[in-house]
Predict the structure of Kelch domain containing 4.
Amino acid sequence: MGKKGKKEKKVKGAEKTAAKMEKKVSKRSKREEDDLEALIAEFQSLDAKKTQVVETTCPPPSPRLNGSLSAHPEKDELILFGGEFFNGKKTYLYNDLFFYNIRKNTWVKSEIPNPPPPRCSHQAVVVPQGGGQLWVFGGEFASPNGEQFYHYKDLWVLHFATHTWENIKAPGGPSGRSGHRMVLSKKQLLVFGGFHESTRDFIYYNDVYSFSLDTFSWSRLSPSGSAPSPRSACQMTSTPDGMGVIIYGGYSKVVRVSSDSLPRIVVIFLLYKKWSWSRLNPSGSKPPPRSGFSLAVGPAGRAVLFGGVCDEEEEESLEGDFYNDLYLYDTVKNRWFPGVLRGNKTEKKKRRRVKKDMAEGEEAEREEEEAAAPQGPTEIIKEIVTEDGTVMTIKEVIPGPQVQEEEEEEEEEEDGSATAPLIEPCPRSSAMATVRQGKLYLYGGMFEVGDRQFTLNDFYCLDLHKMDQWEVLVEMDPKTQEWLEESESEDDEEEEEEAKGAEGEEEESEEESEDEEEKHPAVQEGETVTDYQNRTEQYWIGLARANMGSDAKDKKVAKVALAMAKVFYEDQ
């Protein structure tokens, strides 16, 4: 009896200790949330002092990720709102609002009184009613040190006609969250999934809410069938008839005893008509598992997926492979296919004319071309991989005709009329994307090199009808790449000088205030990006290795080195 009583006391003591810890953690979580609410209130009080709408022409928005980019329903304009930026020491959240004029290629910053407080990872949906509206729901706010989070559950609407923000206070809506998805389906907004993180725990959701644009009221849906597992950052697309939505992919973090598991969910689900879930099995070439991809809806209801990152866990470290490939999902045919760029059409016509003008009687030369054909694809693959570093371009290789085109391109190079190499956005995740008039627009995002995060502010456009080549609207500005962690920039400068000396480049200037890019190998006149990458390969590999550490894989280091060389080349 005595031993049993002692055991019972120990159990009760452990339960009491656990309860105290639970209460302590709960209080701490509540205290941190109160602190963030006070900080948010300060931002709102500052915004409340603004009483007039002020619009000013401005440079492109600062580097950021996890903002929203939306297409105006009537005008040739794009609307960028919010986002975040991290410089190694401090996290910045934004609630600024920008309008991009597509025809003029100009940006305007619009300061409207009483906007939503700063946030990222929210959702924004444009609807045509009332002269055009931008609906914003949820998102998160982070403390400057990035260790505390506040998740919004507010709903806002921006009225384009009156240039006013309105906070819609309707009960019964989703709980506070970020990383969720929201789309327009007929006359309602559908919200799915997302997550909530605090000091205490994190929760992933798979619930579905509907907001009526007629009655301005929330309702929680209870679809039949087997629902998708809880997730955030998935792809959610309305069906062409507007009667349902399609869910693809997403991210969920599951804690295990040994380490964190980072699954990326790749199954497609359909929520349709009388709100029932069904699982789809699409055909075609599916994207590899990833998270942080950008998504938009293209022509004919095709879902467009760009980039993202696949995290790889190795013991205590976590590394990511970033992508810049493009996939399209046909919602009607339930089929995936890679978005392969076709290149410049006018240059292809030139090559056809060269073919037509060739002497038909030169049988010997044709036999030599056919004999060399098996070697042609290998050369093309090497060139494209070196230039772009993507899986997508490998699928463009076709034996025979591709070899002929490559040989003709070499002849054109001798004549000085060669095509410029294809320009593509560098690999990234969490970029902002939208489609307007059949064109995909991509802004910002981030990628990582070792422990450093590079946040982007470049801007690209791709015609989804032609699928020929990316157009650069705003080039990345290297001066915006700020990183303040433990004075690593000074160490990097010394390592770059050593690498430069090994390459036998010119001596650096004695002035320390010179731009950092001048220390890199210079681009020679008439040199293509491929030639530059090949010539300076060892330098950039050395620089990437210095940033990523000796434990990084050679393949990953080479990939990062190519991206760094390409970014530097394009900036010159």
In short: The first strand starts at residue 54 and ends at 58. DSSP finds nine helices and 30 strands in the chain. Residues 2-48 form the longest helix (47 residues). The radius of gyration is 27 Å.
